[in-house]
Write a structure and sequence with these properties.
peptidoglycan glycosyltransferase; transmembrane; PCN-bd_Tpept
Amino acid sequence: MTARGRGEATRREPVLERPESLFDIRLDARDRSAPPPVDPPRRAARAKAAKPSPEPKPAPAEPRRARADPPAKTKPARRRRRGSLLFGLIKWGLILGVWAVLALAGVIAWEASKLPPMQTLMIPKRPPTVTVQAADGKTLATRGDMGGVAVPIGELPPYLPKAFVAIEDQRFFSHFGLDPEGLARALVTNLTSRRLRQGGSTLTQQLAKNLFLTQERTASRKVQELVLALWLEHKFTKAEILDLYLNRVYFGAGAYGVEAAAQRYFGKSARQVTLAEAAMLAGLVNSPSRLAPTRNLKGAQARAGLVLAAMRQQGLITPEMASTALARPAQLSRAGMPDSSGYVADWVMDQLDSFVGEELPGDVTVRTTVDAGLQQAAEKALEDTLAKSGGKFGVGQGALVVLDTDGGVKALIGGRNYADSQYNRAVTARRQPGSAFKPFIYLTAIEHGLTPETVREDGPIQLKGWRPENSTHEYRGPVTLTQALALSLNTVSVRLTLEVGPKAVVATAKRLGIASPLDPNPSIALGTSEVSVLELAGAYVPFATGGIGVIPHVIDVVKGADGKVLYQRNISGPGRVMDPAYAAMMNHMMMETLASGTARRADLPGWEAAGKTGTSQDYRDAWFVGYTARYVTAVWLGNDDSSPTKKASGANLPVEIWSRVMKTAHQGVPVAELPGGLRSYGFGGAGYGAPGGSLLPPENLPDDRPPAVVGQMPPPPQPEQPMTIDRWFAETFLGAKRQ
């Protein structure tokens, strides 16, 4: 036993015993500074020291093991801490989830509160439809959004609704308005392709989006779309939703609803469409503006092929049905194809606001002055002539206008093909008329006292370095005004312009109906100021009416959907703009143009006709404006970029087109003489081309050609400056001449 052991065995703690004592000064385990685990081994050592025993084993090892025990006790503590952390995460996750659900519900409730009443959503609003009619009430074109009459789904061919389900929403009958599988597939496709290639919207969502909401792409609109889709699924059966969708969705070209689309594209009711036509209609809703068959027939047919493949794959049609439909793809009907009537309809829409106001009261019907049969004949005449001879003469475009003697537009062709170009060359384009402008010069000369028999010199002329010449560089010497106009002699035209003054010529043209700006300079004698086909035709009407001017117009009556007349034309023209005697003289001279001059190829048997050809510099424009006592027709040919043609002149292609159109226009029309024509003017004969009417032998008849011009055109005259003291002094004392 060690000394420490012996000392501890004989040690005695002092004891102060006082039974009634209120305090005890003895120390216990709680009063000691050592940790509790150390105390029991010490007491055990004291107990062992009191008993005789063999040599004891050293005791310090036991307290060391006691101090090494805490690491064994930390494993449950860590597990408790981990469990506590996991529990906290779950608890807060649930709390956040509940708040997220509440927030989402609040957002949905807020967006739903901003929607209008559901009953008002069932009547979708759309812009007014404008139906453009011919004079006989036949529909020429439709502008704006067209809503067809709703056709119950039970009256449609079974394959028509199936086509929409197959290509747009194959799980339509199983989902609740949203298609999670479709959304996931669309998300994966868009992420893998790194662009938006596929959408996950159901037919119900499309119905909500297309009918009830705007097309803006915002989070608010998507939430509203979700709310409406769920409401639709709750409110209606699947068949009713599909019925609403088919009768309201947009199909392009302004057609809303399957009935309007079938009428627009195929000229038939949706009840009668074939499988190929049904597939085309179903394919359009994916991109109606891009795939509308009126502008992209090939694209619409290709999309229809995808629809048929989807229907066959899903077992909605047999392989034989799919093969038959693919072999005969849907085609546009004649009524559905864009034709020249589109130019008329566009012009009507440009003017409609000025007649009925900017805000249309609803759907309106516009009855025009257009003759539908003549419109088609004019379109065919232009297209056939350009197809046959356009390449030979280097002509790519053309335009024409037919007016009656009241100024009503009976036909208007704004270009070779409306589907290819909607630019209206008859109304909007301005081109140089060339010699077709010369009648205004000769009328001005007659109003200044000259007559058709007045003689002027056809010879070289020079004006400050500018020398206009005839295209042949040949001169005939003294000629009458009748001869000069019929043969389109440039030198005589320039002499007359200088004689009466360019300003007087401009005033005459304006009085008769030219609205475009005209430069009052000597070159106006050669038709260098640009005009439109429509206004040039209108300015020729006073010759056909004996001096009564007109305002070209196309709108006759405008009615609302209830039949109420919103506008009816009762405006007269400008009245008399030319003395009847002068009109008779001009008609006599211009009849010779067809009898022996540049328009001798014109062909209208049995009718007195007159007119004037025109060809601008470098053969850029070819014109012919001709008329009878019933109609005036102006024809223009050229290229949009003003590039020269291959010697296309007013005497060839325009005259050919004019003859075809005017023959159609005069079918069944009672024959009438021109004011001051051959009979009334005293020259005799049954019409132009009568025996003895020719001024020159046939071999010497000229063609219409551009003028030959040498030198720079003289500048237009400057307006006279007001007299000032400085100017008066210079002119009076310095001899300066007035400019």
